[in-house]
Amino acid sequence: xxxxxxxxxxxxxxxxxxxxxxxxxxxxxxxxxxxxxxxxxxxxxxxxxxxxxxxxxxxxxxxxxxxxxxxxxxxxxxxxxxxxxxxxxxxxxxxxx
Length: 97
Ligand code: FES
Description:
With 97 residues, the chain is an alpha+beta fold. The chain has helices at residues 20-26, 60-66, 68-73; strands at residues 2-6, 11-14, 45-55, 75-77, 83-90.
């Protein structure tokens, strides 16, 4: 188990290998996921913050759905990003007010 923090929305632990979206759901933290985790809608984006960024590398599909600006800001798709260690992310209010 590793520590996961979702900004001021909550924190807890997750299993290594879980997606960020799975971890959030287990902690009852709501992240929009309109396509059901099929890497097509982009609504599950989270912003990586802090020093703890232990996520699997981004693949090309995730990069295309996010777009270059979001990638440059450090955004990830919660349904695609798998946890490798402690993480800190925030859920942008634009999608999850
Ligand atoms: S839930 Fe649609 S891209 Fe992640």
